[in-house]
Amino acid sequence: MNLYVSNLSFNTLDAELNDLFAEFGAVTSAKVIMDRDTGRSRGFGFVEMSSAEEGNAAIKALDNKMLEGRNMSVSVAKEKTERTGGGNNRNSYSNNKW
């Protein structure tokens, strides 16, 4: 089960997230998402638990729990959707004369 963890401290590391969730079962992966330009945490991450039961136990115990001065939010991660292109398509206007 893949979990979305938000409102993390900018100091939280992957290993800390892993250790915290490991109390509720086997953690397949734990990743704090970093900003590619600054290298700083974006304040959220993902934890993959080996089973739904373990994931649900972690949600129940950790959602709204204080971690490093912030009440983190833990929920089931939504499936990643394919992103469409930006708004720079020159053919997007039906009356485009150029």
Tell me what the structure shows:
There is one protein chain. The protein has a single domain (2-70), classed as 2-Layer Sandwich (Alpha-Beta Plaits). Helices cover 20% and strands 31% of the residues. It has two helices and six strands. It has a four-stranded antiparallel β-sheet with strand order 2-3-1-6, covered by helices on one side. A two-stranded antiparallel ribbon has the order 4-5. The radius of gyration is 18 Å and the shape is globular. It starts with a strand and ends in a 22-residue tail after the last strand. The mean pLDDT is 88.
In short:
The protein has 98 residues and is an alpha+beta fold. 20% of the residues lie in helices and 31% in strands.
Task: Reconstruct the topology from this structure.
Elements lengths: L1 E5 L7 H9 L4 E8 L6 E9 L2 H11 L3 E2 L2 E2 L1 E4 L22
Antiparallel strand pairs: 1-3, 1-6, 2-3, 4-5
Q: What is the element string, with H for helices and E for strands? A: EHEEHEEE
Q: What proportion of the residues is helical, as a percent range?
A: 10-25%
CATH fold-level name: Alpha-Beta Plaits
Sheet-strand content, in percent, reads: 25-35%
> CATH class, please?
Alpha Beta
Task: Describe the strand arrangement of the main beta sheet, using strand numbers.
Answer: 2-3-1-6
| Computed Rg | 18 Å
The CATH homologous superfamily corresponds to RRM (RNA recognition motif) domain
* Helical stretch tally: 2
Give the termini distance in whole angstroms.
50 Å
Mean pLDDT: 88
CATH architecture: 2-Layer Sandwich
Let me know the largest β-sheet. Answer: 4 strands, antiparallel
- How many beta strands in the DSSP annotation? 6
Unreliable segments (pLDDT under 50, ≥5 consecutive)? none
Shape: globular
